[in-house]
Protein 1
Amino acid sequence: MRFHVLSLAAAMVAVAASPAAAKTINVSAEGADANEKLQEALILAEPGDVVQLGAGTWTLTDGLSLDVDNVTLRGAGTGEGGSILDFSGQQGAGEGLLVTSDDVLLANFAVLNTRGDGIKSKGADRIVYNELRVEWTAGPKETNGAYGIYPVESQDVLIDSVYVRGASDAGIYVGQSRNIVVRDSIATENVAGIEIENCFDADVHDNIATKNTGGILVFDLPNLPQQGGHNVRVFDNVVSDNSTPNFAPKGNIVASVPTGTGVLVMANRNVEVFDNVFEDNGTANVMIVGYRYDQKDPKYQPLPRQIVVRDNAHGKAGFAPAFPGGAEIAAAMGGAIPPVLWDGAGDAIVLDDVGVLSLGLPDVTTPQSEAKPVPVKLGGTPPPALPAIVLPEGMEAKVQ
Amino acid sequence: MKRIAAALIAALLCASAGGGAAPAAVDQALIEGSAMPAKLSAFGLFAGNDPARPVASFAYTLRTPLFSDYAEKHRFVSIPAGKRATVLADGTVDFPVGTVIVKSFGWPDFNEGRPVETRLLIHRASGWVALPYIWDADGKDASLAIAGRRVPVAFKSPDGTAHAIQYGVPNRNQCKECHSRAGTIVPIGPKARNLVLADTVGADTRALYFTNPAALKPVMPRWDDPASGTLQDRARAYLEANCAHCHNPEGSASNSGLFLRWTDPVGVNYGIGKRPTAAGRGSGGMDFAIQPGDPDHSFLIYRLESLDPGIAMPELGRSTVHKEGAALLREWIAAMPKDAH
């Protein structure tokens, strides 16, 4: 009898978790009303459903959006012969696709040439981005949209095997979120390849960040609902040739990123940069700095703290430092500055066997014009290693 | 549109004179069910399905409305017989289940003033549901456009400028983008601080539909009437009506840290000396949302005056620049002392 009760309870749980009526809604790119049909499918989908995009190109004039929990939007591929959402003629909405519901999987399609952001998910917990292409096809241009893949204010985010090119801000941008994995992805010819901003607990690994202005950024900014970024691990990435001149619209924080930046850590605590391969980053392979703009936010902490850099492979770096006075310092040091650059405020431990240049700015209020560059050693005992990010099992299952 | 106004007044008089029970024409079972009927007529919200003859509990206007491409909006509320709304402490109105808020959009000089679309916000037991209907070409009924649509319209704005635009009727998700508080749909316009019931809505009607009608005291000025408030208060009213539905800590733009509610302090999180967060091209190469004394270097103005989807604010519902609204905000910013932040 007891057994019966238990199995009944289990059956009820199963029903609640996966509605029996889960279905696949096939959407075609053909026909005059293809766009309306696609948006309609995204609205009428029910939890558990798959919206399956056929092969073809949708020429969209307005942003798409999804607000139903536990829906999969899947295409037939990201390249030629795949499912292409082309926003070249977009007339409205701040992004190509907006997701505002939980437990969503986006897979196997491409979003091209949006006027604003590519794919944004806001307050979308446990979202999975898998095998997507978000691209501005003309390459770096100031008129490109800001973010390619843009989850914000979310708990549990997985970005796996995506390709992002041409974003005038960050290719992959995760903002004000918690428990994040960005892996096995390629970010190229963006201003920032991958940016983790005002986030807690993130692993960024096994990505290729190349030919951006800056490869991988870990930032924290003031006056935002979630701040105090911490616990970020950047490891096993290839960060090379980030040499694209900065094409971000002025005013945005990434517009201040010097061309030739590999990894840039700003105003975060407990960030680990390890086991990466760096090559050909003209300003620095790793840069560690404070937030140097005026701000009066009493809750904001502008310094980098407990930053650990270890076990990275450093190729050529520092041969074209693109910050004020950089060329003069390089000339004085025999043509290049060391691969690790620290502004001198906050604290960091660098265990890699390479030089570290401090700009000798003791705090964030000392102007950069008073820099007193000097080689330093940043040895010491690092704090206990951060644990790996563990995502809910169901999320990992979606990308198997 | 005069025709509509007259009919609205007639309906109001009818409602107050007739004891207020909504005429039987409204299909309350349909309203409170889960259906999304393909035709607007199914609800019975207009007598003879004539947009000029709403079956209203009461009509209302707003001191300072949201700009929607210079559309004239006609708004009314249908509250089921025997039920009443309550004005809450924060000025929002708690409407009973079964309430429908109806808003029709049209231009006096387009298609003989007939509405282009009618949006319903229906309070069902499961929550508020937003449904957009586009009027058919013959004007006899309106059809559900769940996925939204762009409709070509042409009109003249108050300064005589001719506009021909692809007016965007929002899809159901886009309705929610603005009507969202912490992920659920809520009404925006009818808040006590902004809500104006017509003079013809007498005390009897107010008491019939509100438990605390005395709380219906609009305090916000009219954005375009200098006699109704100071420059700053009119600018704040404009920002409340046009921006704050997203720009609040529980809205669609919560992550921006830019909060523009009527009740928010005019400081850095109101844009004064605030650097762009995720603005992208919206920064226009400027450092601050609002640079006191300098509207030309305030990207809040830049975004209001743009039509580019990667730049324009609000993100939805605007295919023309609201010149007069932008002028008000320019005047407000220009008047700020330059060292105000």
Protein 2
Amino acid sequence: MGATPTEMPIPVDWYLYLSAALFIVGAAGVLIRRNLFVVLFSLELMLNAVNINLVGFSRFHENLVGQNFVLFVMAIAAAEAAIGLAIATALFRNRQTLMVDLFDRMKG
Amino acid sequence: MTEKILFIVFSVLAVAGGLGTITRKNVVHGLLLLVFTFLNVAAIFFLTQAYFLAVIQILVYAGAIMVLFVFVIMLLNLRTFEQEEQTHRRQRWIAAALSVLVLVEFVVVLAGVTFTSVRGGLTPETMTDLGGGTKVFGDALFNNMLLPFEVASVVLLVAMVGAIVLVKREKTAGGATRAWEPGERPTPEALEEEV
């Protein structure tokens, strides 16, 4: 990278704007779409937005704890994806559909 | 300057990929656009000198997790639920409008805040002074964060066991739920009766 020492780094605000945009896209996906898979994708999008925030502030404050947090968020995202997909599989087996509107009761 | 231009380019591509993810009708297309978004986020991590996280983002997120999604989508025989969202048409527009509203709120709030830090921010030079990004990252992870690290491994184990338990077919004895034949589509009335 052609970064010279005198060059100003990317301002932290930019990370926040990007993160806000990605998070809103994810939230809109959860609200708008009815397909369980797309809802799970949107959750991943929101988690990624949070990661961008953490990395941006980690660099801003020269503190690597933020980057360590990102690793934990990724671990939790992996666990969430595994459980979510298992639930999707079980639901599809019982209902032959993945439209979240149809999943409106806890029983059966 | 180059960094800033690259940041803008990758940001725009990431948000565009995200928008594509939530608007595609075909789930597999949405998934591929999501992988595209993750690759752009990895590039942004790289620009931020978070080299290790950039690699992990590609390996774990774009690689492992997304492959898991692809496997399950294929496993569930996608063609049976292609038609979508005939219900709640009005709710979709309200949700979209509210999302835009919240985005505007975010931008207004962020525009009114100035962030100050006592340090100048990590640059490739300060990273080298600290002994290389990944080394510092590992030092912090295995000293300060050792307990959370171990807890995270237990969480992953629990998730693995939980996924197996959830997907395992039960030996139904008495009040068994009805198993649908492959290709059979229950009507909403049948689903009501089942309960």
